[in-house]
Amino acid sequence: MSAKNTNHLSRRKFLGTSALGIAGITILPSFALNKKGAQGAMPSRLKKLIKISSYAHKEMIEDLSECSETRWLSKKVERSIPIYSGESIGNVTVSGRATLEVAKEMKHEGKSCICLTTNTEIENIQPRAGCGIEINLGKIDLSSYNRISAWVYPEAIGYQNFYFHFSIGNPGRSQLHAPCLLPNKWNHVTWEITDIERNAVERLTISPYLGGCPPEGLPTYKVYFGEISAEKVEADPEFGWNLNDRIAYCHSGYLPKMKKIAIAQHVTEARFKLCDVKNNVVFERFVRKIEHQSGIFYELDFSDFTTCGAYYLKVDNRQTKPFIIDEQALDESIWKSMNFLRLLRCGEDVAGVHSACHLNCKVIHPQTQATVPSFGGWHDAGDLSQFEICTAEMAQAILELAIKVKDKDNVLYDRLLEEGKVGISWLLRTRFGDGLRALAVSYGMWRNNVLQPDNESIRRSVGENGPFENFLAAVACAVAAGVYKETDAIFADWCLRAAEEDFAFAKEGYQKGIYSRRWGTNVDSQVCGAAALAAAELYALTGKEEYGSMGAQYAKTILACQKSDYPDWKIPIRGFFYEDPAHTKMLTYEHRGHEQSPVHGLARLYELLPNHPDRNKWKEGLELYREYTYKTCELAPLYHLLPAHVYELGKLNMERFSIGANNAERAHNDLQEQVKAGMKLSDDAYLRIFPAAARRGFHATQLSKAKAVSIVGRALNDPKLIQIAMNQVEWVLGKNPFASSTMYGEGYNYHPLYVAFSRQMVGSLPVGIKTRGNADLPYWPVMNNAVYKEIWGHTTGKYLFVLADVI
């Protein structure tokens, strides 16, 4: 057996030696406690697959075994009142493309219900068609209740999922809950409304979102509504740092040689215990007290324990669920991420999700009127869009991770190469060859794939020329050229040619000041970071000195954008980046994250050009960023989070925030107040743990910064930085105040996510934990809505990007 195969099987020492394969899924029936072979019953989560084939299976689309929704539905209802019986339409009005009546045959629990009938065939209807019902509640006082419970039955042929908008609250203060419901069954919809003003609720609105009619579907769509109640339950904690009786830890597990820390509160015992799954105490240490402005916390540090196996933590009368310690502890999350991306694919049949989709969608060249097909790649998020920036970085991340695991696990390596090619192929197919390409594609609905000559909706995506986007494509295709040359020389050669061409287009476009309309004017530090990285990758492939020289020129701009001297602040910090060499605007992100870009370019040049005269300057820039990371982490130690950004009040670039032109002044004031809620560094400079933002949800910004830190850690051979990056992965996987893994189907207490057009997908990551109001505090409500709970391939790409450095 090859070394690669041996390493691939090493994880199975802890998962059992026999396996049952079902439709490409390997389910492991037993669990070994340690390398000496002691056997124990395998905990339910650890019965999950560790290998997923290249096609999807229905069991990987929805997993309620450890989902918080299962827990929510089992909560004890302390009291309830019906707010709508479902038996009459007397106080219900219908809107949009629908009719409403009392159902003639359908009943819920023996009682009558109402039926809304609509039609999903909306592809050629402008403006977009919608429908819904509004239930008049008078001005009912629901302040004594904190949850809504509704029964809904969507009836249709040929659909995997529907999603709805439920809205309730006082006039002008209502909030939206957007769950996905399965067709042809009664769905019990519940959501907690603790944070909604509700002492004078006039109406409840319910809108079945019309998502178009796929080829396999029929357009007639009926929705039955049964009883709706307000309930009082013990509400989930949603806001702030406090854990109460929960223990925050990484649900997937820990690598043996890295830090292994959990966090708890209200601890009375002096010592905690680490136990194996046979309940034997294998390690014991004193808890470590951490005083914070939010309260007293305790760290349970078992870093000194390195024996591989399955364990749980115990302190007082509390204990965690099982996790593993192993070099491959995070591999399961990688396989599930690959499953998620497989389910996101566009333009092909995906079992349990959709048939081949969007085959009639194109991108048009604004000058020549030439078109290229836009299908392929991955749907970006719940809204069925796709963006070149995200696809390029996702493909690059997958291939970098493939390079990392190549000599360890050939099965995973092949799977990563397969998925990476999906993104690279889309980048190649959607370029016009003159600098213009598909940058932003929005499908918006399922379509029937019929190409109508008078259907202009298929041509609404217009090609653009974006220097940052072309540099990213050059990077991704250059990495692909190196990776695929052994297995597909023709494809690799195509990638190299495209990478060199796109680099030239990007260079010219940046010199001319061209930028894409969606993302705004060029960010010098970000664009030059991508340019330096692209130049470095092309130098590595071709050996052409010109690429090294151009990379060095871009590096000069990157370093000019970095704060290299100490400001005159009460707490002086340096090493962060501005957008521009003149330092007029801060480099900050609120939604997408690209903070890794400047240091990635510097680090790759530093690695590839050991004799370049500027190499020490590049190293100094990396060392400055390390200093910045160390300093800001010292100022915000709780949960070992990387703080988001340093902000100077006079240097916010409003172009980078998701605001409308009509709300610019109000948004500016709101952002200023958010900044001031951070840690004060001077009269006009602040440090925030989470970004100041209009569009909230911060996994991508956090993980892009983690990638920056891991890049610097790798370049400077600094294990402390690698650990800081790993800490951010652990936050995503459960070491957070909500003790919630945010990857659906991985770990425990994962929330159902905003999937919109699809069913819940195992391995999906959302936009991320957000904030509320101006407070610099985490907020993860039960209520499901965009964008914070929206599935997002960009987040998955950033997650895999970090793993490429830390595993």
Describe it for me?
With 807 residues, the protein is α+β, with helices and mostly antiparallel strands. The strands form nine sheets. Strands 6, 8, 9, 11, 15 and 17 form a six-stranded antiparallel beta sheet that branches. Strands 7, 10, 12, 13, 14 and 16 form a six-stranded antiparallel beta sheet that branches. Strands 18, 20, 21, 24, 25 and 26 form a six-stranded mixed beta sheet that branches. 52% of the residues are buried.
Care to give the gist of this entry?
The chain is of the alpha+beta class and 807 residues long. It contains 16 helices and 34 strands. The radius of gyration is 26 Å and the shape is globular.
Sum up the structure in keywords:
34 strands, 6-stranded antiparallel sheet, alpha+beta, 21% strand, 16 helices, 807 residues
- Multimeric state: single chain
Would you count the extended β strands for me?
34
Mean pLDDT figure: 90
Structural class: alpha+beta
Portion in helices: 25-40%
Treating each run of at least 4 consecutive H or I residues as one helix, how many helices?
A: 16
Residue windows where pLDDT falls under 50 for at least 5 positions: 1-59
Shape: globular
Largest sheet: 6 strands, antiparallel
Q: Report the radius of gyration as a whole number of Å.
A: 26 Å
Q: Between the first and last Cα atoms, what is the distance in angstroms?
A: 23 Å
Q: What portion of residues belong to β-strands? A: 15-25%
Topology:
Elements: H1 3-10, H2 12-15, E1 20-22, E2 25-27, E3 31-32, E4 39-40, E5 49-52, H3 68-73, E6 79-84, E7 92-96, E8 98-108, E9 111-119, E10 131-140, E11 147-155, E12 162-168, E13 175-177, E14 180-181, E15 187-192, E16 201-208, E17 220-232, E18 253-254, E19 261-264, E20 271-276, E21 281-286, E22 288-292, E23 295-301, E24 309-315, E25 318-319, E26 323-325, H4 331-344, E27 362-364, E28 371-373, E29 385-387, H5 388-405, H6 410-429, E30 440-442, E31 461-462, H7 467-484, H8 489-512, H9 524-542, H10 545-560, H11 596-608, H12 615-635, E32 645-648, H13 664-676, E33 679-680, E34 685-688, H14 699-715, H15 719-732, H16 793-806
Parallel strand pairs: 18-26, 27-31
Antiparallel strand pairs: 1-2, 2-5, 3-4, 6-17, 7-10, 8-9, 9-17, 10-16, 11-15, 11-17, 12-13, 12-14, 12-16, 19-23, 20-21, 20-24, 22-23, 24-25, 24-26, 27-28, 29-30, 32-34, 33-34
